[in-house]
Design brief:
This protein is of the alpha+beta class. It has a single domain (about 5-245), classed as q2cbj1_9rhob like domain (Jelly Rolls), CATH 2.60.120.620. It has five helices and 18 strands. The strands form five sheets. Strands 1, 4, 5, 7, 12, 14, 17 and 18 form an eight-stranded antiparallel sheet that branches. It has a four-stranded antiparallel sheet with strand order 6-13-8-11, with no helix packed on it. The protein has a two-stranded antiparallel ribbon with strand order 2-3. The two termini are about 20 Å apart.
Length: about 250
């Protein structure tokens, strides 16, 4: 059964996002949770090895961004290359898709810090074809535990990549400093927030007594090429060709 309607497709084109509630199969939710726990353990081991509590934009006990590990824990690739991900890609970027990036975004209990308004494309810093971000709620998402918020195109009036400024303390990049609140994703575990890489989004602090976990996968219609090296940046794993899965 098709989960994504023409209304979803139109909203993605016109506003840069749509939300699907309770669409991740329970089996895949278990995989996402188990994988997250293991990857946090490995992150702590690496922090210990380096003698630090801060790697890139991950901060021990506060916030974790664990990237490009989809093939380093058992079965996580089953979700990454699932029928559900294929359907979202077809509805947003088309019949050809490459896995571009994956990461866990975790806010620790009563410690998770905020993440400022940004476009995912702002972290690349060079012109490229927009890709799709699929933000999966691994836990129930609320304002209190720092859920994600998205900014509709019609609200912010921006549909292109803008310059971002990096915070030297947190490592965050920020591209919007206004007061618009955006649309908060108050959704149950197993839901997806789907948005373009040029859609502004942010997340709040986790003020609850439980960890808040999200898993992000990003897919591009073509490999994203680093203009300085002329090589693909991050990942370029073929996923769909002619609308059919060739990975997973």
């Amino acid at each position: 059964m098709t989960l994504i309607t023409e209304a979803h497709r139109q909203q993605y084109r016109e506003e840069g996002y749509f939300i699907l509630e309770r669409v991740i199969p329970e089996e895949h939710l278990v995989i996402l949770r188990d994988s997250c726990n293991r990857l946090i353990e490995l992150m702590h081991e690496e922090m210990d090895r380096q003698g630090t509590d801060h790697i890139h934009i991950s901060h021990r006990g506060k916030r974790y961004h664990i990237a490009k590990k989809y093939d380093q824990v058992p079965r996580l690739s089953e979700y990454v290359f699932s029928d559900l991900m294929a359907e979202v890609c077809r509805a947003t970027i088309g019949e050809t898709a490459y896995l571009f990036y994956d990461q866990y975004v975790v806010k620790a209990a009563e410690q998770g810090i905020t993440f400022s308004w940004h476009q995912d494309s702002g972290y690349l810093g060079f012109p490229h074809m927009p890709y799709v971000t699929i933000w999966a709620a691994v836990d129930d998402m609320t304002q209190e535990n720092g859920t994600a918020s998205v900014m509709p195109f019609s609200t912010i009036g921006i549909r292109t990549l803008v310059e971002h400024i990096r915070d030297p303390v947190t490592g965050d990049k920020t591209g919007y400093f206004g007061k618009e609140p955006g649309i908060s994703a108050i959704v149950p575990a197993g839901s997806l927030v789907v948005f373009s890489s040029i859609t502004f989004h942010r997340s709040g602090a986790n003020t609850t007594d439980r960890m808040r976990r999200a898993y992000v996968t990003q897919y591009s219609a073509e490999p994203v090429i680093n203009p300085e090296t002329n090589e693909p940046i991050h990942l370029a794993v073929p996923f769909l060709s002619g609308g059919k899965r060739i990975s997973g």
